[in-house]
Design brief:
The chain is mainly β and 323 residues long. 3% of the residues lie in helices and 69% in strands. It has a 22-stranded mixed beta sheet that branches. The longest helix is centred in the middle third of the chain and has 6 residues. The protein is elongated, with a radius of gyration of 25 Å. The relative contact order is 0.06.
Length: 323
């Protein structure tokens, strides 16, 4: 509607996907600088609520765009959290500052079917990020992230270049490990369409675990993910897994290789299990049983050697009933 030279839009808008929901209403205003001339204007859009399955809701998120000859300037969030510009030539700049968990500056260009964007001075407090997440049994207790990153090439076939450093990371995996998982340094290196993490030493209690991973993309889609995990220096990793069908307490020694692609999961290696207490409940989630089972095209290949030490204890349906 048009009132007093002000265009106002009220739109009942809902975007609901598996992981993200933007709820109604969306409201906006458009103000021409000169009555009747909308070539130069200021527009503001407010989303009442943005929800997701992995983060706390964001309420009343506003974005303001100002159009003047040759450029768009934009401001978003509280206290101008996000600000930048886009020129008619395709050049752009943006920065995220203030109390946002991840800070960075982005500069580059978008022209025809290609784009080139440099993300510089990336900084993050991982504990601050974790406070905004709602992922069950996962918490980033401490750690910092820094780095520089390039993203460019064709829209449908991008290239990546750069690195991200994670230092002094401490992670809690509540229903899986009794001790926190920590490491002094993780370096993620990107080159073309691949990402690599090498020679990471993880500790959990007295256990030491070597970790390495690589990921390759085919355009924007996952091509393959490879992970290597191995306990080191004859140490054992204590686990305390609480799952819908069982509880497992044990100490593990392992050397595992996993390869995952959209149509294949390949898991190989060996696992030695000691001091085992396994409680079987076989009580799955009733909601899961009510859902229709979906056919999967994923092929699973396993070549595992599992050695279970003597004197393991197995109970069903609780720890008062040994098998």
């Amino acid at each position: 509607r048009l009132k007093d030279n002000l265009f106002e839009v009220i739109w009942d808008f809902v975007l609901d996907t598996d992981g993200l929901k933007v709820s109604t209403p969306l409201s906006g205003t458009l103000v021409p600088f000169i009555p009747g001339d909308i070539k130069n204007f200021m527009a503001e859009v407010t989303l009442e609520k943005i929800e997701s399955s992995f983060a706390k809701p964001i309420e009343k998120f506003s974005v303001k765009a100002i159009r003047t000859p040759g450029r768009f300037d934009f401001i978003g969030g509280k206290n101008e959290l996000i600000k930048g510009y886009l020129l008619d030539s395709g050049d752009l700049y943006a920065s995220v500052t203030g109390d946002f968990p991840i800070l960075f500056a982005a500069s580059g260009s978008i022209k025809q079917k290609q784009f080139n964007i440099n993300f510089s001075n990336i900084q993050a407090d991982l504990h601050s990020i974790s406070k905004n997440l709602t992922i069950e049994d996962f918490q980033l207790k401490s750690g910092t992230l820094s780095g520089n990153f390039y993203l460019g090439g064709l829209f449908f076939d991008p290239e990546f270049e750069g690195f991200l450093d994670i230092k002094d990371l401490v992670v809690s995996l509540g229903n899986f490990l009794p001790n926190d998982l920590s490491t002094k340094n993780i370096k993620l290196v990107a080159n073309d369409d691949s990402f690599k993490i090498e020679n990471v030493l993880l500790t959990s209690g007295k256990a030491q675990v070597g970790f390495a991973a690589s990921l390759s993309l085919d355009r924007w889609m996952l091509e393959e993910l490879k992970v290597h995990l191995q306990t080191l220096n004859k140490t054992l990793l204590p686990v305390d897994c609480k799952l819908p069908i069982m509880n497992l307490i044990a100490n593990l020694n392992f050397n595992l290789e996993m390869a995952f692609s959209p149509d294949l999961l390949d898991l190989r290696g060996n696992v030695d299990v000691q001091d085992t207490i396994l409680s079987l409940t076989l009580a799955g989630n009733d909601n899961d049983s009510e859902k229709e089972s979906k056919k999967s095209n994923l092929e699973v290949v396993m070549d595992l050697i599992v050695n279970i030490a003597p004197k393991s204890k197995i109970f069903y349906p609780n720890q008062e009933n040994p098998i």
